[in-house]
Amino acid sequence: MFDSAPLLRDVFGFDDFRPGQEEIVDAVTTGENVLAIMPTGGGKSLCFQLPALLRDGVTVVISPLIALMRDQVRGLQEAGVEAGALTSGNTPEETDAVWEALEAGRLKLLYMAPERLAAGSALGMLRRINVSLIAVDEAHCVSQWGHDFRPDYLRIGELRRALNVPLAAFTATADAETQDEIVQKLFDGSEPRKFLRGFDRPNIHLAFTAKDGPRKQVLDFAAARKGQSGIVYCGTRNKTEVLAKALCSEGHSACHYHGGMEADDRRIVETRFAREDGLIVVATVAFGMGIDKPDIRWVAHADLPKSIEAYYQEIGRAGRDGGPAETLTMFGPDDIRLRRSQIDEGLAPPERRMADHARLNALLGLAEALKCRRQTLLGYFGEQADPCGKCDLCDSPPEIFDGTTPVRMALSAILRTEEWFGAGHLIDILLANETDKIRARRHDTLSTYGIGKDWSRPQWQAIFRQMMGHDLVRPDPERHGALRMTESAKPILKGEAHINLRKDTIRKATRRPAVKA
Ligand code: ADP
Ligand code: ZN
């Protein structure tokens, strides 16, 4: 078999597959004919680009959109992949370079507009080189009844017959008639392997909760599911051991698992988990690849995962048998800080770090979501959905209130202290707590000093956390985690935008007066 993980990381810069990608990559790489239906934005291109690198020879990619082809080629070249396009938009030099790379046998991906197939010379050329795969983007363009019909797409079937290589077709159009037509026209009626699964896993209940005595929260969650197989994901190795012990002493059958264990010990846990009923594995993300136990009934995150993709993958291990499954993800300001600093302190190039922050932001947005979690999650993957009725926010919609006033107070405290302090000190300023640090820095003379007394300290902590969740502020690792404002905070500070906050987490925090709605 092949290992796609190193390429996924090193060439494409992703740590995890998006939903559905891995299965498709496997099938395409092994040379099956494939029809994959994925929502727009779901990550189709990876599903042929990665196999192209894993297979010998050239992958011919047929795509109708010249701009898109050029983008993809540029992206691949920047990642060090030999890719080229033959389109009407090429300069003669570009075309020469593509030919040269083809003749030299260096090219891995050749993008072609369908019109190119009409020229008789194209087929002759493609026969001479070692084509090992045809990938067809926007495969529904072959459908005569659809509004995107491209007559030249009808030549693709001919091309496949002539080259006699596997074909992978991709589209976001899911209706049965279009699928039938694709099968007829591209595969001559012989059924390809179909991947149709949308991203939704309707049997999985989704829930997030703010950390509030996290150890007890995990124990309570497990206690309510005694005897069921589950996974608790933790951010550190040490925590897996501590929590596993705590679960055992509550009478569960539990063990820990992390990458620092001997391979033999890890294998024992894997085997036990596969065979035993009701075992809880408390693990780092090292536990997952290759776990295909169908009846995992729950997954809890004792710490926030690192991205929305990681979250989806990890909860997705529950309920593979289609039976009901439950998940709970815990998060707090420390998680957010930790994940941010892991990204910032990593060795990845700047664009990659920005993308990682964006994926973390997407997860924080989900954590602080104001409406159905599934809608928010699927929306991120490009799929639309109705409110699901199977998430904590559908179960009990959060009360929201206009939080513009406290958020502006917090932002102005940040601004007046020149973005050099963390939430703890900022809250001291807002509450007029005369600490040594405040006196030393003369922060008691600031106009924001004591303006936040309508809220208690825990309430302010919740407000700051939600501000992080909305990506209004970010801790700066170069300033020891001091909070700095992002662009999205500016309109709020200037009074040009409003922001809604969740009431529940703020109201739960002690001491009156209650939040004003
Ligand atoms: P599609 O062609 O399905 O509309 P793309 O292939 O253009 O989607 O991918 C959409 C976005 O998803 C791109 O920004 C891409 O970088 C991102 N993406 C794809 N695969 C992954 C992954 N495994 N992890 C994170 N982001 C991904
Ligand atoms: Zn919902």
UniProtKB/TrEMBL annotation:
Reaction catalyzed: Couples ATP hydrolysis with the unwinding of duplex DNA by translocating in the 3'-5' direction
Every Helicase C-terminal domain range: 214-364
Lineage of producing organism: Bacteria, Pseudomonadati, Pseudomonadota, Alphaproteobacteria, Rhodobacterales
Alphabetical GO biological process terms: DNA recombination; DNA repair; DNA replication; SOS response
Assigned EC number: 5.6.2.4
GO function terms (MF aspect): 3'-5' DNA helicase activity; ATP binding; DNA binding; four-way junction helicase activity; hydrolase activity; metal ion binding
Family: Belongs to the helicase family. RecQ subfamily.
Cofactor list: Zn(2+); Mg(2+)
Keyword Metal-binding listed: yes
Helicase ATP-binding domain residues: 25-192
Keywords: ATP-binding, DNA damage, DNA recombination, DNA repair, DNA-binding, Helicase, Hydrolase, Isomerase, Metal-binding, Nucleotide-binding, Zinc
Descriptive protein name: DNA helicase RecQ
Sequence ranges assigned to domain Rhodanese in this UniProt record: 216-270
Coiled coil: none
Class of this enzyme: isomerase
Record organism: Ruegeria halocynthiae
GO cellular component entries: bacterial nucleoid; cytoplasm; replisome
